[in-house]
Amino acid sequence: MIAGIGTDIAETQIFEKTSTDAFIIKAFTENEIRICFSGPQKSSEKLAGRYAAKEAFIKAISPYLFFKISPGDYRNIEILKLQSGAPSISLTGRIKDVATGAGIQNMWVSISHEKNLAVAMVVLEN
Length: 126
Prior knowledge:
Layout: E1 2-11, H1 22-27, H2 30-36, H3 43-61, E2 77-81, E3 87-91, H4 93-101, E4 106-114, E5 117-125
Antiparallel strand pairs: 1-5, 2-3, 4-5
């Protein structure tokens, strides 16, 4: 059964930063930073897509939240890549506790880029 749906869009220019920028360090895990600052695709596109996915996840899980999201919570939502290249979501900390408490069994994420925009959609199932 669908437990939540969220979408978000982000402008890539906002993410034209270095890997040591304070915002990047607060919002992304070490794995995400490493992935985003390697490979041929622009880091700003990869960062924007992952940030949009994190925001979409927060919107999808929001009916189950019993606390206000803080900047540190973004690092508890990690957007990784499967071997197929498809994005996936990994949770830690109190965000994982909320998802577990809500009975979330599956998390689906899609990220797309067009010109200077990245859009993401998350569907949660329980």
